[in-house]
Amino acid sequence: MALTPEERGARRNLIVRDAISLVTLFLITSVIFTLTLLLFRSFTKHRQELGARWKARGERALQAGHPGIAIEDLRSALAYVPDRATEIELATALAEAGKLQEASVYFTTLWESAPGDGTINLELARLAVKQGNEDQAIFHYQAALDGTWQGNGYDRRREVRLEMARYLISRHEDSKARAQLLIAAGNAPDDPAIKLAIAGLLEQANATEDALGIYRSVAVRREPPFAALEGAGRTAFALGMYRIAQDYLSRALASPLAAHFSGDEEAADRTMLDTSLHVMLLYPSFDLTPRSRAQRVLAIRDIARQRLTACVSTSPPGSPKLADVVSRWNQVPAQLTVSQLEQQPNLEQTIVLLGFETETAAATACGTPTGNDALLLRIANNPYVVDQQ
């Protein structure tokens, strides 16, 4: 049935009113949504700003050596913005504040979710060191070396390896420390500071010969660092390589940089240099002319026999070592000239070796020698490296 004009008008008005209502409702909803979104974004931004502010405060406190303050600041930061990096910093602050158990639990939880994270493993290693757990310390140091790192992982791994070596040295595990340091040295960039640091640690690990090799490799530069020259001289002296020690110590002490050396250290180096010079004046090197070598051999004979005579007169009777040395000296011709000795290289060698044995036996029976006897004993300790170059 057809609608009347009035009915059609009423229907049209109803449709218009409904359309207006829907549009109004949509506009209101849009406005509310927009306001809510803006408020949410503002709130989120504010939370992030507060989190960043508390985190920055915590980091400053941690760097300033106030872990207790850092703990509260970092916890506040986490309340606003949960973040893995902040969690690691909080656990670090707990460890530095001496709250080892809490820090251990925190780091262990982090480690369980990321066992290959280098930073977390390093912090767990440090915690194990503080707790005296060597097995765990080594495990986590090794895991840190094998783990993933943000940023320059190459440098971070080297730092971890050196830290691990320092720990092993503190535990008197020198062979293990040496192995780690040699790996670090092999992978180190051509940076004198890094190489010198490794050489210094090798000295602490009683790997003196390895340290000498690194010091010498740095000392060949056009303008070698003072530490390389001084370190090469010091380690060569410790190894009984007196010709090398003389060379490097004289260069080090002649360097303008020696002016910054402390008085005690300079005095120690000058003593080593003076000793090296005197040893080289006494040592019967095969590089000498036959006559000069023969003269030095006779000087060694006189020094050793005087030491033996004095020692026999004061030592307890019946010392088998001294008796053997006396017997062997009696087999050496009492009267020898330089010319005669020049013609008898085998006798030269016999006298030299007997002189070394005399000083060694006398040191055992009669105590530490002085003067030329002390120099001769130094040579006797390792005669084949004295004039090594």
Count of helical stretches: 18
Radius of gyration: 39 Å
SS elements, strand count: 0
Please mark out the parts with pLDDT under 50 across 5 or more consecutive residues, or reply none.
none
Cα separation of the termini: 124 Å
Comma- or semicolon-separated keywords:
single chain, 389 residues, mainly alpha, Serine Threonine Protein Phosphatase 5, Tetratricopeptide repeat, 18 helices, rod-shaped
How would you explain this protein's 3D organization?
The chain is mainly α and 389 residues long. Among the domains are: 153-282, Tetratricopeptide repeat domain (Serine Threonine Protein Phosphatase 5, Tetratricopeptide repeat, Alpha Horseshoe), CATH 1.25.40.10; 290-385. Helices cover 78% and strands 0% of the residues. The mean pLDDT is 85.
Short précis:
The chain is mostly helical and 389 residues long.
List the helices and strands and how they pair.
Blueprint: H1 5-63, H2 67-80, H3 84-96, H4 100-113, H5 118-130, H6 134-146, H7 153-170, H8 174-187, H9 192-204, H10 208-219, H11 226-238, H12 242-254, H13 263-282, H14 290-314, H15 320-329, H16 338-342, H17 345-366, H18 371-381
Helix pairs in contact: 1-2, 1-3, 2-3, 3-4, 4-5, 5-6, 6-7, 7-8, 8-9, 9-10, 9-11, 10-11, 11-12, 11-13, 12-13, 13-18, 14-17, 15-17, 17-18
